[in-house]
Amino acid sequence: MTLRSPSDVTKLRNGVLMPWLGLGVWRAEGEQAIQAVKWAVQTGYRHIDTAAIYRNEKEVGIAVKECGVNRHNLFITSKLRIHGYESAITSCEQTLKDLQTDYLDLYLIHWPMPEEGKYIETWKAFEKLYRDGKVRAIGVANFYDTWIKEIMEQCDIVPMVDQFEYHPYYQMRELHQFCIDNGIQYEAYSPLGGGAVLKDPEISKIADKYGKTSAQVILRFELQTGVVVIPKSVHKERIESNMALFDFELSQEDMQKFYAMDADKKITCRRPDMPFETWKKLRAEGKI
Question: What pTM value is reported for the model?
Answer without folding.
Answer: 0.94
